[in-house]
Amino acid sequence: MSTVVISGASKGIGKATAAGFIKTGHLVFNLSRTPADLANIKNIQIDLAGPNAVQEVGAFADSLKPGILHLVHNAARLTSETVRSDDIDNFRSVININVIAPQILNAALLPKMNAGSSIVYVGSTLSEKAVPNSYSYVVTKHAMIGMMRATCQDLAGSGIHTACVCPGFTNTEMLRAHVGDSQEVLNSIAAGSTFGRLVEPEEIARTICFAADNPVINGAIIHANLGQLEN
Question: Is 34 helix (H, G, I), strand (E, B) or coil?
């Protein structure tokens, strides 16, 4: 039985991914501020953007035995602002959870990861494009692809593989909150895919599980967006 560590598995894509790994017999840990209400999940309460994140993640890592471990960088923060924003504290807070937290986890958990392990970054369709009013999210999701590519190069020969799964607009609490729960806006977003709907969290979860299990895609970006209509 392999171990899976997912950041932010209390809802949305992270929760669906945890459920998928649990169903296939993995030992799954959720690292987040809030617990996931899933049977057989191990909830570890950690604020990955907090001042004690390094120490708390380190203590968690110390509790694990070396073996095959799949690390899924799912936790993310999405806020609304533009390049004109002078709220540097907000910008820093998004960087902390979207970029710094994954590296805290990498540094702590890599010593526990044997050959056959994986690191899966959860990017976004905004990892390679941009939309207005999501400046910090776009910047950090672009950075995540760079982190994945650097991870691939740095871990060459280790037997540990990596990939970045980039979901399209997904039917999650985070997206609905970002658009103010406007069904009109959600419908407009859904119309931008070739299927005319939002992606479901379970679809991304299956893609993440596939990425974790298949080292042949090492260094790959996986677009999981139902196909986007180009204007």
Answer: coil
Instruction: Give the chain's end-to-end CA distance (angstroms, integer).
Output: 46
What are the distances in angstroms from CA 87 to CA 84, 118, 125, 136, 193? 9, 36, 25, 11, 33
Residue among 16, 6, 225 nearest 129 (CA): 225
Q: How many residues does the chain have?
A: 231
CA angle centred on 96, ends 147 and 162, rounded to 5°: 25
Q: Give the global pTM.
A: 0.94
Are the beta carbons of 18 and 41 closer than 8 angstroms? yes
Average pLDDT over residues 182-208: 88
Q: Which two tokens mark 189?
A: 């977003």
Rounded Cα gap, residues 164 and 219, in angstroms:
8
pLDDT, mean of residues 87-98 = 97
Helices (H), ranges, the chain: 12-23, 53-62, 88-95, 101-109, 135-154, 173-178, 183-190, 201-213
The amino acid that residue 135 corresponds to is Y
Q: At which residue do the structure tokens 């937290």 appear?
A: 101
DSSP-assigned letter for residue 132: T
Task: Give the model's pLDDT for residue 230.
Answer: 77
Give the angle subtended at the CA of 28 by the CAs of 6 and 57, to the nearest 5°: 50
Residue pointed to by tokens 């593989």: 161
The two structure tokens encoding residue 116 = 């056959």
